[in-house]
Amino acid sequence: MRRNIYVNCIKRELDVLLSLVAICLLSPVMAIVAFLVRRKLGSPVLFTQLRPGKGEKIFQMYKFRTMTDERGPDGKLLPDEARLTEFGSFLRDTSLDELPELFNILKGDMSIVGPRPQLVRDMVFMTKEQRRRHKVPQGLTGLAQVSGRNAISWEDKLIYDQKYVEKITFLGDLRIIFRTIGNVLKKKDIHTEGMATAEDLGDYLLRTGQVSQEEYEKKQRIAQKICAKYR
Q1: Contacts 24+ apart (CB under 8 A), 6-10
Q2: C-alpha distances in Å from residue 201, one per residue of 10, 62, 125, 153, 211
Q3: Which has the closest alpha carbon to 204: 147, 138, 158?
Q4: Which residues are CB-contacts of 179 (< 8 A; sequence separation ≥ 6)?
């Protein structure tokens, strides 16, 4: 009963209150970051990307831009590691790139604590059980983020997400928030070993032989169709 009261009534009210306070307090920091992004990486300052939220409703998630738009002779974007600048790495290491997500929380797209919103192309590779993570609003931080973040496997991330969905409490959320602050200050578990950016779920499943090339391409097309509806 207490869980229902917190989840159904109190959690959203706290999200609104805390995101408003955070936006007010951090607005000078966001202004400085926006200025530096514009100067070092150009326009646009914000990077927006479609992500599945509660009930798999697609929304635009906001982040500060961390990569250039450099392209090869074929006109395609260069790999992430080639476009991720030193300044962009700094923003990611300090999690400053995620500050605009406070506006997603204020809008109701996200919550302060919840399973981290993944890409649409990640969602289509999840099992029915794993997709239960979308029963609740996705979070700025979550149980998986304070339990290893990018230093743990996709399987473990999704297990932590399911654990969170099964038991949401005020004290649990509070512990996650404080652990997140500690991890950010320590710059802990930010990178996937040997990779400049986190590996997509589909790419991971293909690399480890858990899906065939045919199935991989089929699900990528499904993800592209879903995204096309919102562009």
Answers
A1: 6/168, 6/169, 6/170, 7/136, 7/168, 10/170
A2: 33, 21, 7, 10, 11
A3: 158
A4: 146
Closest CA to 62 of 79, 78, 86, 45: 45
Summarize the chain as % helix, strand, coil (round to 5): 60, 10, 30
- Kind of pairing between the strands at 58-64 and 46-52: antiparallel
- Structure confidence at residue 112 as a pLDDT band (50, 70, 90): very high
pLDDT at 21 over 70: yes
**Residue 35 burial (10 A CB sphere; 0-12, 13-18, 19+):** exposed
Structure tokens at 203: 């790419």
> If you average pLDDT over residues 115-124, what whole number do you get?
96
Residue type, 27: S
Alpha-carbon radius of gyration of the chain: 18
d(CA 2, CA 18): 21
What is the tens place of the pLDDT at every residue in 47-87?
999 999 999 999 999 999 999 888 888 878 888 888 888 99
Which residues are CB-neighbours of 111 under 8 A, at least 6 positions away? 11, 12, 15, 105, 136, 137, 138, 139, 140
